[in-house]
Each structure stands twice: as structure tokens, then as C-alpha cells.
Amino acid sequence: MRGKLLLIGLGAMLLLGLSALIALMGLQPGPEAGRAMPQGTTRADLPDPDGRGAELAARYCRSCHAVPLPSLHTPEEWPAVVEEMRGRMISRVMAPLPTPSIAEHHELVAYFQRYGRAPADRDAEPTETAVAPEADAPAKDDGAPAPRPGEGDVAGN
């Protein structure tokens, strides 16, 4: 009888350990893990710091980490990032956290998308006011003739 209880106890501990391992695997960092979260970033560092988006970012993001600069991700990436963070808040992985309402969630996504990094700048460092360039912006004309193919390389040749 004692052997059965010991076996059941060991089995339960093994099952509990495997469950914890599987749960922790779900918390593994994604492909953005190599990007450093700006340390010490505050609402004052954000674009439109007095606006509603910056207010919500400061209120909810600071619960766990520095306020992220919108240029940390592209506009296309922000919805998934905000959804993941909201999911973590709701799941209370660490501790009970204030969680944005659905309306606030949409406001946060819109704010981060408005000031998000331009897709062409994917590997650039985050900046305070990175905004996607206008597609219809006129080309700069300084009056100089355009270089022919093979001329005007980076070295100035």
C-alpha cells in the first residue's frame, strides 16, 4: 500500500512538473526578444505626450516595463503586440494588473500604429517620433542631374 502511494505521489509530481514546463514554454520570448526595450522611457518621451494614447501607454505598459516607444514596432506589428500584452494582463501571469478595456485597447493600437516604425526601417533603432513617410511626398530636386547607373556610389565616386 505504501509503495502505491509513493508511486502515485511521484507520478503527480512528474505530471505537475511537466505541466509547469509546458506553461513556461508558452512564455518563451518571440523573435523580438533581441530588441532592447528602451529603459527609463516615460510618457514625456512619447510622441504627443499629452494625448490619450500616451496616457494609456503610461497607465498600462508601466505596470510591467518601461513605456515602449511606438517606433519599436511597425504599424502592422502593433495589434499583435498589444493583444499579447493585454492577454498577459488578463491571465494574471504575475500579479493582478489593471487591464485596458476593449475601447482603450483599440485606442492603444491606433496610437502605436500612428507613430509606429516605417516597415523599411525594420532594423533601425527606435526613435521618439518615427512616422511612416508619406507615399505621395515629392522627390527632392536639388537641380543636379541624376547619376547614371554605376555612378555616385556611397564612397562618392
Number of strands: 0
Q: Biggest β-sheet: count, sense, barrel?
A: none
Low-confidence stretches: 24-36, 128-157
Helix content: 25-40%
**What is the tally of helical segments?**
4
Q: Give the helix/strand class.
A: mainly alpha
> Averaging pLDDT over every residue, what do you get?
71
Q: Give the helices and strands as they follow along the chain.
A: HHHH
Strand content: under 5%
Distance between the termini: 88 Å
| Overall shape | elongated
Radius of gyration: 24 Å
Region (Disordered): 119-157
Biased composition (Low complexity): 127-136
Organism: Vulgatibacter incomptus
Protein name: Cytochrome c domain-containing protein
What do you see in this structure?
There is one protein chain. The N and C termini lie far apart (88 Å). The model is unreliable at 24-36 and 128-157 (pLDDT under 50). This protein is mostly helical. It has a domain at 41-119. The protein has helices at 2-25, 52-61, 78-91, 102-114. The chain contains four helices and no strands. Residues 119-157 are annotated as: Disordered.
